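Late entry, evening session. Most of the bench is empty. Finally got around to the prediction I had been postponing all week. Sequence below, unchanged from the version circulated by S.P.
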Amino acid sequence: MDQPLEYLTINETHALLKAVSETRDKAIITLFLNTGLFVNELIDLTVNDISFDNKTLTINAHRKREIPLNEESIEALAKWTKERLETPDPHFFITTKGKVQKLSMRNIDKQIRKYADRASLTRNVNAKILRNTFAINLFSKDISFNQASAILGITDPESIKRYAEAAKIKAATKPNLDHIDNRSTATKLLDKIFPTKPKIIKRHSTISATPDELIIGRDNIIKEISNSLIKTQSILITGQLGIGKSHILNHIAKNQHNAVLIHSPVPIKDMLKKIDMSMYPDTSHSPRTSTNEILEHITHNANADFPILIIDDMSNLKTTDIPTMLTLLEHCPILAATEETEPRLKQLWWKFRPIELKPLDTDSCKTLIQSLTQNLSISDYELMETKLLTFANGIPLSITDMVKQLSYNSVVTRDAIRKIYHEAGIKYRDWTPAIIILWALLIMSRFIALGTHSFEGYILVGFGTSFFLVVKYFMGKMK
């Protein structure tokens, strides 16, 4: 003879829910009591399976079905979204300590037993008993066998019959799970007035390119450079440190036919050897071969298929290297980059069309941050994004550096976010012009006081000048 079904009474259900302290665990137990999920279905539940707009839960396991959610479930799930880590793991219920991963069956049963003991329930409460509680509550109202079977995900007539007999079922018409809501009347009313809004969980996707290959916010620059190179026009990319000059050079070198990437033009002889080898692979040079001889070998064949030269750190060039570079510019287009256009090389800069790289705009920075942090588990994504934007000042390298700092944490906590720092976030201001103007005004005021025979004004300006000198002295000491 079958054992009678075990389930919780109304008082036991209320005591259990009241004993739950963690938001995630409250959502789990509420979901069991209001949907009758199998434990493996709850474990495999993903963020995409829950529709807060439609108030439905989609089960994609072998018992495929769509379950309506009542307000109690919506509220519990919405509260958990606000505490759930931003993580590439798609499972809705994840661990909150240690390595981020989906919950295990053992972990869920352990949590249920913990709260059952806290609620002083004498029986051994587990996920199956919570499912039974939902099923019996479901059959105790007007619902048909087919409707109940669809919600519970069972087709076995004997199982359905056991639930029906336990609940003394009546004939039914339309499924409605609102009657299973275990909250108090006051709580239900308050939730109707001030409903809990779920946090939008960011849908993570696998990074399609490595960080070295990501090009964000530079599409127009890339297109402009490519068009110029087609016209054999030489381009000089300028911009501050970390702005992405080398990144763009590497990207174009990988995608440009017949291009030679040179990370530094010095020593000039080594650069020429690399160019020569790309044009004439069978060529070899002895250590005694001079720079001019290599250059002549490169340029002697007017019909040669000259490559596009892509040269980084052009500011390292020596003044004596200018004639060599001018000769190369006569035979092929050069895409180069430099942080500063030093006056000593201005004869060379005149041959290039300059393109200045500006800091990334806010939207591009956000896209870059999202791309680089897709594989991180983050407790507060908005805080992290704000901190990175503030300290990066639109500099891509500073964003990459700070994300790397965070990546050493198994979980990026709020404390870890608050500790990140980057020099790019400090904006230095030159107060020299203001100091000169203020000093001139003080001197001018003293002469005006003398000219107008204002003794009080003369003394006041004298005190002001003394105060100014003292402040300037101590500010100099603090640097």
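Two things to note before I forget:
The beta strands are 50-51, 56-59, 65-68, 235-238, 259-262, 308-311, 334-338, 353-356.
The longest strand covers residues 334-338.
Will write this up properly tomorrow.
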